[in-house]
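seq:
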Amino acid sequence: MKKALQSIFLFITATLILIIVCPIVLFMGIIWWDQHISVPSQIRASLPEKIYTLGVVTNDIGISLPGGDCGGMSFKLSEQTLKEIEDQGLAFFDNATPEPVTTRTTKHDWKPWREAPVTSEDSNYAHIPKGCVKNFDNYLKWYGYNKTKDTKGYYTYVTSRGYSNLWIFPEWGIIVYGYYY
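struct:
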């Protein structure tokens, strides 16, 4: 009788684990996949074709703030891309516009690339959202990079229900994608 009760207890325990724990682990796996594989792949695919990257530097996807979600990613630029930017300057970006962002009813075009500093006209949308790219901020501190108004950079942005922007910092060899919705 005691063995039968132990067997029943083990069966119930195993069943509960399967019913409760497995879906939780599966759900967590889906979230991990979305934030570490799916979204980074989508962001990289949305970069203009002529901007070659060598891999992810930082991932700040899915940060929630009061009033919206925000985040970003940064990628290492290839030597070829950096050389072309150095040789051509702002002209490099003439054919480097990201695909438009499409919402349910509207297509939103990215603004033309501009050279830093950010103009007052662009100031609401061109800045990398504060508090949204903490891993990127830590990366800059770790390597001693200090973003000032004199830091050489190029940027573009698009507004839809929020905004997204791209920044290229040639001296650091990185491109940063930021968003706030």
